[in-house]
Specification:
Jasmonic acid-amido synthetase JAR1-like; GH3_C; ligase; acid-amino acid ligase activity; four-stranded mixed sheet; globular; 22% strand
């Protein structure tokens, strides 16, 4: 397998970003030529035109809801060209949810290719700063099952669709980034068992491991928190050369049996190293002496995990991975020596056509501007047009332009425009909260009682963090009904990231706190006291820890509290 030519990759990136404006026009032209026969574009009257001006005049800005009917027909098996010229055969389940269901997003070969292009680009810049030898990587990655839709399409999370693609493995080999764990572990049916085996494989190859990575930094922290619990068991497996009985799946056991041989010296070494650590500080470089860096998405809702990750990593560089979503990729991190809190992403002008809605205080200011027209210091909402059937699609992400790399902007991720509740990979919006409260409050109607008002809070003072929902109810409700309401709330957040995190206790049980009558009136009085107009008052649906006074009002008025037992 030929290794990637780092200098050539960087050279290509430099020349492309120097000509970002023309590359954008050409990319749009290519997207529209390849997909011009699609029903969606046919209906908009482009009549074969591929220039940005006609495109913007004919094609409306859309959200996922607008495209849902088209995507649903694809999912149901329609073979006519609906959103793309070539049929879509794979669907990504995005973690974001609308209407209480995970979102379906088209996935195709072109999207796979842009994924690998982003990987290769950031790898080139990373390797220039932190050269790695031809060893292995401890990749804490997990692939959920792919299922079939009613129409026979393959459906899985975006990462699963990538990991299961044959090109992924070849690219990883060319990037000297082969996972030290066998496929049976990555694709194992049980997350806990896969995690244990990932750690065991890492230890077996401990001197060859060049870097540690995962999709999200949360998974890396979670893995080493688990290591603290199971390290002695891992040592016993290595000493005896026999896998613990906690691994029950035959495919995983037989794959691990090929790697595991009795090695008392290694077991003693690990045992000694672990006992020598103070509160596990510097665990990663101690176990893996040749690791050059730690890599994963560390921005946005992942930032709270950096403190713990640094504790484990000591002075190893933490590098934030690239910027994208289930819908498509946007930018690569080409400044890997910058700490994650300051990470920015340079937009690759040939992986999609990008527009930006200017925002001031999260309010739309004007018409969208093109990639090379954004201004440094301003905030924007990202709009993407992709090779996978999304045209002028509002991503809902707010980014800040921090500078330019040649003519392509460097973006810092700020937040999701409509995101409310998030602890790690979970993403729940005001709509999701509303649907959960509606579902759970139906249980009160038999009691002839209603939920008068509600709010929420992400409590990170507990470990792991958990969702807190505040309810004001119109009268006394029986204990057992409120316990069931609490479980119902927990189950009603159907976002894939939330459900999977709850199952492995990476997010703690949801807490329902019932507040006394008049609490939300006190919040209203507080805002009016600050000079807010009564007619424009909105109950804050999610109270962050920065909104301390409102959080105090809620917490000081709690009369009962319940924890979910749903998972």
């Amino acid at each position: 397998m030929e290794l990637l030519d780092v200098d050539k990759l960087i050279e290509e990136f430099e020349s492309m970003t120097k000509d970002a404006g023309n590359v954008q026009r050409e990319t749009l032209k290519k997207i529209l030529e390849e997909n011009g026969c699609a029903e969606y574009l046919q209906n908009l009257g482009l009549n074969g035109r591929t220039d940005p001006e006609s495109f913007k005049a004919c094609v409306p800005l859309v959200t996922h809801n607008d495209l849902q009917p088209y995507i649903q027909r694809i999912v149901d098996g329609s073979s006519s060209p609906i959103l793309t010229g070539k049929p879509i055969t794979t669907i990504s389940l995005s973690s974001g949810t609308t209407q209480g269901k995970p979102k379906f997003v088209p996935f195709n070969d072109e999207l796979m290719e842009t994924t690998l292009q982003i990987y290769r680009t950031s790898y080139a810049f990373r390797t220039r700063e932190f050269p790695i030898e031809n060893g292995k990587a401890l990749q804490l990655i997990y692939s959920s099952k792919q299922s079939k839709t009613k129409g026979g399409l393959i459906a899985g999370t975006a990462t699963t669709n990538v990991f299961r693609n044959s090109q992924y493995k070849n690219t990883m080999k060319a990037m000297q980034s082969q996972c030290c764990s066998p496929d049976e572990v990555i694709f194992g049916p049980d997350f806990h068992q896969s995690l244990y085996c990932h750690l065991l494989c890492g230890l077996i190859f401990h001197e060859e491991i060049q870097f540690i990575s995962s999709t999200f930094s949360h998974s890396i922290v979670h893995a080493f928190r688990t290591f603290e619990q199971v390290w002695e068991e891992l040592c016993a497996d290595i000493r005896e050369g026999v896998l613990t009985s906690r691994i029950t799946f035959p495919s995983v056991r037989s794959a691990m049996a090929k790697l595991l041989k009795p090695n008392p010296e290694l077991a003693d070494l690990i045992h000694k190293k672990c006992l020598g650590l103070n509160n596990w500080y510097g665990l990663i470089p101690e176990l893996f002496p040749n690791v050059k860096y730690i890599y994963g998405i560390m921005t946005g809702s992942m930032e709270p995990y950096l403190k713990k990750l640094r504790h484990y990593a000591r002075d190893l560089p933490l590098i934030s991975a690239d910027y994208g979503s289930s819908e498509g990729w946007i930018g690569a991190n080409v400044n890997p020596n910058v700490p994650p809190e300051l990470a920015t992403y340079v937009v690759l002008p040939d992986i999609g056509y990008f527009e930006f809605i200017p925002l001031k205080e999260n309010v739309e200011e004007a018409n969208p501007v093109g990639l090379t027209e954004v201004k440094v210091g301003e905030e924007y909402e990202v709009i993407i047009t992709s090779f996978a059937g999304l045209y002028r699609y509002r991503l809902g992400d707010v980014v800040k332009v921090t500078g330019f790399h040649n003519l392509s902007p460097e973006l810092k991720f700020i937040c999701r425009r409509n995101l409310m509740l998030t602890i790690n990979i979970d993403k729940n919006t005001e709509k999701d909260l509303q649907l959960a409260v509606e579902a759970a409050s139906k249980l009160n109607t038999e009691e002839k009682l209603e939920v008068l008002d509600f709010s929420s809070h992400v409590d990170l003072s507990t470990n792991p963090g958990h969702y807190v929902i505040f309810w004001e109810i119109s009268g006394e409700v029986r204990e057992e009904v409120l316990e069931e309401c609490c479980n119902c709330l927990d189950r009603s957040f159907v976002d894939a990231g939330y459900v999977s995190s709850r199952k492995i206790n990476a997010i703690g049980p949801l807490e329902l706190r019932v507040v006394q009558r008049g609490t939300f009136q006190k919040i209203l009085n507080h805002y009016v006291g600050l000079g807010a107009a009564l007619s424009q008052f909105k109950t804050p649906r999610c109270v962050g820890s920065t909104n301390n006074e409102v959080l105090q009002i809620l917490c000081n008025n709690v009369v009962k509290s319940y924890f979910s037992t749903a998972f």
